[in-house]
C-alpha cells in the first residue's frame, strides 16, 4: 500500500522474506497509521485509579514559556491527542501540569507531562508514574509470552526466536494477542526479520548485549589530536569524563555496597565473608581515600565484612573433574567394615522364637536361633530378635551395622531397612524353626534360649543424657547457621527481626547485650544450674530475686525468662522459706528478745549487717552446720553482688574489677572463653588506674540514693515545731497499751529542751524528766 511501509531485515532469504511479508499483510490492521486508528484500550480490561494521598493538595503549575518551534510541536501533538479522543478541553482544572518537550533521535519532538507534583501526592508502588499504565498494560496483555518469546518494557517490545522458521509463528502469536486487546503498533518504530536490534538503549545480537554504536559514534569518529591545544582539550575531556568511568576496583566496591544495601538484614545479622582476587580491603581502608570511594568505605564500615583471597581455580576444576569421572557406588554393596544383620521373629501355639543371620566382611556368616521360654507376641518376638542380633554384632566387634527386617513396626521406629519376607527367608526359617522344634533338635546353627524378656533385665551403669534440642535457641541457631525458618510466617518474621541481636560463635549462641557486649544464651536446664549455683551454691547467700537477676546478667548469661525465673527460684527456695525461730526451736535454743534504748538509731547501725544475717539464716538449715563455716561464703556473695546504692560490687570498688564466680567455670561466659593471660595482666593495670573514677561514680550514686530516700521520707513527715514550754502528747509505747481500747497518745508533757533536728527533751508537769530524746514524729500538740 502506498504510504504504509515498514522496515524488514536484509539478511533474509527470498523464501523467508516472502513468508514475513505475508504475515505483515495479514496483520496490517495491527498498525496505527494515523491517530484515528487508535481506538484505545477497553476500560473494563485495564483501568488504573491513582491512589492519591487524601492530605495532598491539588497543584496547578504556572504556565511555562516555550520557543516558537516547541509551541508548534505542542499544538500538533495536542491536536493528535484530541482527534484520537485521549484528551479533551476543560474550563476549570483542579490539577494542571506543564508539558516537557524532548527531541527524538530522528529530529522530531516527544511531548511528555511533568509528573513531579503528582508523584509527590501518590504513594510509591512498583509502577511509578509516568509509565504506570504502560507497564501494567504490557504485563497483563503479554502475560503468556513474556520471557518465552517476547520481552517488553513500557512501549518497547522484542520478539525473540530460536530459529528463523519459528520466528513467523511467534510474530503471528504476538499479532493475535495485541489484536485481541486493540493494541496498535507504530510502524515507524518497527523492524522485522533482523538479527540485531536496539532495546532500551542497547544493541541486542546473537552474541549478547552490546553497546549502541550511535552512542559511541562521537568517540569512534573522533580524530587524533594534532596540535598542543587539541591535546589539552582531550586531556580536559578525559578528566571531566573520569568521574563517570569507574575503575575495576571501584566497580567491585560499588557491587559490594549495592549488595549490602539490598541485603541489609543479612549483613547486619551476620559476619559476611567476601572472597576475591583484588585487594579491596586495603583500598577501602586507605587513609587518603576521597570522593565516592571514601563515601562507600564509610557506608560499608557499619557491617562486619571479612575479606579473604579466593582459592585457586585449578584445584576446584580438578575436583570437579574427578567427581565427574568417579563411577557411582553400587547399591547394596558391602564395604570392608560393614555388617548386615537380618532378623525375624515368630510366635504361634507351639511357642515363640527368633532367627538371626549376621553377614560380615570376608564371607563371615553366623546363624542363630533363639527360643523363648516365656509367652511373647509376634511384635515382641521381632524386638527380641533385633536386640539379640545387635548384641551378637557387638560381640563380633562390628562398628557399622545395617539391619534388615520384614516388620514395618520395627523399621518405623529405628533407622532400619525394610525388606520383603521373600528377601528375608533365611532368618524367617530360623525363627519358625526355633518356635516349632524342641530344644536340642537344631544342632547345625547356634542355639540359645531366653528365659525372660530383655526389658526385665536390670539396667546397670546406664547414663541418660538429655539434650534440649528443641529449646528456645533452636530457631535462632537454625536461621543464623543454615538459613532455616519456621513454616509459620509470623514466627519466621519474628525470628528474622530478632536474629539481628544474636550471633553464633564457636557453635554457641550469644546475645548482644547492653550490660556486656555478648551474653551467653542458656537452655532451661543450664539456666537452673546457674541460678542454683549463684543463689545457694558454694558462694551463694540466698540473695533476693532482683539481686539474683542483676548478678546473673552481670556474669554474662541470658535466657528469655531470666527475670521471672530468678524471682520464682527465690520464692521456691527451701532455705529462703524457713524461719530462724523454727530452726532454734528444733535444736533446743531458747531465744530471749530485749528492747533497745534508742530504737530510732538502732536500724542505722545494723543496716550493714542485716543482709549478712539474713544470708546466714538461710545458709544454716541443719543442726550440724555452723554459722562460722558459712560466714565466708555469705561474705563472698555479699562482696560480689551489685548494691542498689552504689550500683557496683564492693569487690569492684576495692580491686577495680569484678570477681569471677564459680558458675563461670562450669558454664564458661564470654570473658572466661576469651581469657588471655597477657591481655588480662595489662587490663588489670588499666583497671587500677581507673579505680578512682569508679569509686567517685559509686560515691555519687550513693549520695543520690540517700537523697532519694530522704526525700521520700520527708514527703510523709508532717512538720511540727515546738518551743520550750509547749504542752505535747507523746505516742504510747507497746508496754503502755494494755488492750485495743488503750489510748495511743499519753501525756500531757512539757517541752524542756530543743536538741535540734526534730529532737526534744520532755518533762512531766510535776517537773520529772522523761528519759532520752523524742522525735517530733512521736509528738503532737496538746490543747487545753
Please characterize this protein's 3D structure.
By secondary structure, the chain is an alpha/beta fold. The protein has 5 domains: 7-203, HIV Type 1 Reverse Transcriptase, subunit A, domain 1 (HIV Type 1 Reverse Transcriptase, Chain A, domain 1); 228-309, no CATH class; 354-454, no CATH class; 513-594 and 605-694, no CATH class; 727-781, SH3 type barrels, CATH 2.30.30. 41% of the residues lie in helices and 16% in strands. The chain has a 6-stranded mixed sheet. The radius of gyration is 46 Å and the shape is extended.
Radius of gyration: 46 Å
- Biggest sheet overview: 6 strands, mixed
Bulk shape: extended
What is the count of β-strands?
Answer: 26
For the record, the CATH architecture of the largest domain stands as Roll
Identify the strand order in the major beta sheet. Answer: 16-15-12-13-14-17
Query: Low-confidence stretches at least 5 residues in length (pLDDT < 50)?
Result: 331-336, 437-444, 458-469, 593-598
Q: How far do the termini sit from each other?
A: 129 Å
What count of helical segments does DSSP give?
30
Domain Integrase catalytic: 471-658
Keywords: Endonuclease, Hydrolase, Nuclease, Nucleotidyltransferase, RNA-directed DNA polymerase, Transferase
Pfam family, one: RT_RNaseH
GO molecular function: nucleic acid binding; RNA-directed DNA polymerase activity; RNA-DNA hybrid ribonuclease activity
Amino acid at each position: 500500500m502506498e504510504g504504509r511501509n515498514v522496515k524488514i531485515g536484509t539478511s533474509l532469504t527470498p523464501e523467508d522474506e516472502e513468508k514475513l511479508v505475508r504475515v505483515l499483510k495479514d496483520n496490517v490492521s495491527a498498525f496505527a497509521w494515523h491517530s484515528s486508528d487508535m481506538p484505545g484500550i477497553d476500560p473494563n480490561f485495564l483501568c488504573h485509579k491513582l491512589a492519591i494521598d487524601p492530605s495532598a493538595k491539588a497543584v496547578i503549575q504556572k504556565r511555562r514559556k516555550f520557543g516558537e518551534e516547541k509551541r508548534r510541536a505542542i499544538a500538533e501533538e495536542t491536536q493528535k491527542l484530541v482527534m484520537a479522543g485521549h484528551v479533551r478541553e476543560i474550563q476549570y482544572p483542579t490539577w494542571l501540569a506543564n508539558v516537557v518537550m524532548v527531541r527524538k533521535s530522528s529530529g522530531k519532538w516527544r511531548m511528555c507531562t511533568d509528573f513531579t507534583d503528582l508523584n509527590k501526592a501518590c504513594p510509591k508502588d512498583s509502577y511509578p508514574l509516568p509509565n504506570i499504565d504502560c507497564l501494567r498494560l504490557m504485563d497483563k496483555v503479554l502475560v503468556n509470552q513474556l520471557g518465552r518469546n517476547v520481552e517488553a518494557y513500557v512501549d518497547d517490545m522484542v520478539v525473540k526466536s530460536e530459529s528463523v522458521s519459528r520466528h513467523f509463528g511467534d510474530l503471528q502469536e504476538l499479532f493475535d494477542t495485541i489484536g485481541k486487546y486493540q493494541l496498535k503498533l507504530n510502524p515507524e518504530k518497527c523492524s522485522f526479520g533482523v538479527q540485531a536490534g536496539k532495546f532500551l538503549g542497547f544493541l541486542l545480537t546473537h552474541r549478547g548485549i552490546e553497546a549502541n554504536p550511535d552512542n559511541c559514534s562521537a568517540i569512534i569518529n573522533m580524530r587524533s589530536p594534532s596540535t598542543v591545544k587539541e591535546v589539552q582539550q582531550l586531556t580536559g575531556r578525559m578528566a571531566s569524563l573520569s568521574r563517570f568511568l569507574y575503575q575495576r576496583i571501584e566497580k567491585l566496591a560499588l557491587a559490594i555496597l549495592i549488595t549490602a544495601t539490598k541485603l541489609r538484614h543479612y549483613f547486619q545479622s551476620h559476619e559476611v565473608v567476601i572472597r576475591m582476587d583484588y585487594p579491596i580491603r586495603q583500598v577501602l581502608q586507605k587513609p587518603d581515600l576521597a570522593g565516592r570511594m571514601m563515601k562507600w568505605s564509610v557506608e560499608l564500615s557499619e557491617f562486619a565484612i571479612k575479606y579473604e583471597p579466593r582459592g585457586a581455580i585449578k584445584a576446584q576444576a580438578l575436583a570437579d573433574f574427578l567427581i565427574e569421572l568417579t563411577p557411582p557406588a553400587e547399591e547394596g554393596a558391602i564395604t570392608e567394615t560393614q555388617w548386615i544383620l537380618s532378623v525375624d521373629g515368630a510366635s504361634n501355639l507351639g511357642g515363640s522364637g527368633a532367627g538371626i543371620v549376621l553377614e560380615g566382611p570376608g564371607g563371615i556368616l553366623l546363624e542363630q536361633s533363639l527360643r523363648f521360654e516365656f509367652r511373647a507376641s509376634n511384635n515382641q518376638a521381632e524386638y527380641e530378635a533385633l536386640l539379640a542380633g545387635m548384641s551378637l554384632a557387638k560381640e563380633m566387634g562390628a562398628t557399622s551395622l545395617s539391619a534388615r527386617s520384614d516388620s514395618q513396626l520395627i523399621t518405623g521406629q529405628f533407622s532400619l531397612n525394610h525388606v520383603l519376607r521373600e528377601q528375608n527367608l533365611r532368618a524367617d526359617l530360623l525363627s519358625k524353626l526355633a518356635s516349632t522344634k524342641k530344644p536340642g533338635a537344631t544342632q547345625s546353627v547356634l542355639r540359645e534360649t531366653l528365659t525372660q524378656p530383655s526389658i526385665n533385665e536390670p539396667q546397670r551403669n546406664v547414663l541418660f543424657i538429655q539434650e534440649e534440642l528443641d529449646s528456645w535457641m533452636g530457631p535462632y541457631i537454625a536461621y543464623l547457621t543454615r538459613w532455616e525458618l519456621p513454616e509459620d510466617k509470623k514466627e519466621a518474621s519474628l525470628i528474622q527481626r530478632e536474629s539481628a541481636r544474636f550471633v553464633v560463635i564457636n557453635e554457641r549462641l550469644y546475645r548482644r547485650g547492653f550490660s556486656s557486649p555478648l551474653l551467653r544464651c542458656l537452655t532451661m536446664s543450664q539456666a537452673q544450674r546457674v541460678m542454683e549455683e549463684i543463689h545457694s551454691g558454694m558462694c551463694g547467700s540466698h540473695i533476693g530475686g532482683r539481686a539474683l537477676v542483676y548478678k546473673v546478667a552481670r556474669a554474662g548469661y541470658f535466657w528469655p525468662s531470666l527475670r521471672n525465673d530468678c524471682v520464682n527460684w527465690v520464692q521456691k527456695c527451701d532455705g529462703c522459706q524457713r524461719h530462724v525461730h523454727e530452726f532454734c526451736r528444733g535444736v533446743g535454743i531458747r531465744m530471749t528478745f530485749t528492747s533497745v534504748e534508742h530504737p530510732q538509731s538502732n536500724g542505722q547501725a545494723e543496716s550493714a549487717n542485716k543482709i549478712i544475717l539474713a544470708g546466714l539464716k538461710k545458709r544454716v538449715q541443719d543442726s550440724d552446720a555452723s554459722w562460722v563455716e558459712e560466714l565466708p561464703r555469705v561474705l563472698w556473695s555479699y562482696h560480689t553482688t551489685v548494691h542498689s546504692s552504689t550500683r557496683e560490687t564492693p569487690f569492684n570498688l576495692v580491686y577495680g574489677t569484678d570477681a569471677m564466680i564459680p558458675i563461670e567455670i562450669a558454664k564458661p561466659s564470654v570473658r572466661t572463653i576469651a581469657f588471655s593471660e597477657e591481655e588480662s595482666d595489662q587490663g588489670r593495670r588499666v583497671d587500677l588506674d581507673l579505680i578512682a573514677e569508679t569509686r567517685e561514680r559509686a560515691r555519687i550514686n550513693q549520695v543520690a540514693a540517700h537523697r532519694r530516700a530522704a526525700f521520700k521520707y520527708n514527703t510523709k513527715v508532717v512538720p511540727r515545731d515546738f518551743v520550750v514550754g509547749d504542752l505535747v502528747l507523746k505516742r504510747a509505747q507497746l508496754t503502755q497499751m494494755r488492750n485495743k481500747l488503750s489510748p495511743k497518745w499519753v501525756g500531757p508533757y512539757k517541752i524542756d529542751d530543743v536538741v535540734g533536728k526534730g529532737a526534744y527533751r520532755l518533762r512531766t508537769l510535776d517537773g520529772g524528766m522523761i528519759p532520752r530524746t523524742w522525735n517530733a514524729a512521736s509528738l503532737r500538740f496538746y490543747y487545753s
